[in-house]
Specification:
With 165 residues, this protein is α+β, with helices and mostly antiparallel strands. Helices cover 53% and strands 18% of the residues. Strand 2 and strand 3 form a beta hairpin.
Length: 165
């Protein structure tokens, strides 16, 4: 293939916290950074494209780490991130059958289903927030709710102790 290798920032989500030995083995293959609980890793990997970067990392690190999902860390020019998931054979078979019935590629069907699930989750979270706000506003003024939220958000960044009652 012609073209230059490009660096791709990749986030790796693990199915469970990686043991220190697993992280050590993986670092011998690819330089990486782990979060505090060792369930998410960051890697910069060179490849001809983002899909190849994800595929190459799964091949290189899969035997050493309990990988769940690999994603490109930065969205592309269309605002999309690329996912790499390893489906079990039964799920893959169902996905291929559904895609065939729709006359589409399995990855397109999966992508549409993931987007629909994310949209549904966002709607449900917004509805829960609205319900909780309505409950708060039944007992407090908007100014009290806003001041409390501002304190909470400010403390989240500065590790403040909650105000005394």
């Amino acid at each position: 293939m012609t073209g230059h290798l490009v660096h791709h920032a990749v986030e790796i989500t693990l199915t469970r916290p990686a043991a220190p030995g697993e992280i050590r083995h993986a670092r011998h293959r690819v330089p990486l950074a782990a979060n505090a609980d060792r369930t998410r890793l960051m890697v910069v990997h060179s490849a001809h494209g983002p899909g190849r970067a994800l595929h190459g990392l799964r091949r290189r690190l899969g035997p050493w780490l309990p990988i769940d999902v690999l994603t490109t860390h930065y969205p592309d020019r269309h605002g999309q991130v690329l996912l790499n998931v390893d489906l079990d054979s039964a799920t893959h078979e169902v996905l291929c059958r559904d895609a065939s019935a729709l006359g589409q590629r399995p990855q397109d069907v999966l992508g549409r289903r993931v987007r629909a699930a994310l949209d549904r989750d966002a709607r449900e979270r917004a509805e829960r927030l609205e319900d909780r706000l309505a409950s708060l506003l039944a007992h407090h003024t908007p100014e009290e709710v806003l001041a409390s939220a501002a304190r909470r958000v400010g403390c989240r960044h500065h590790r403040c102790a909650p105000p005394a009652p």
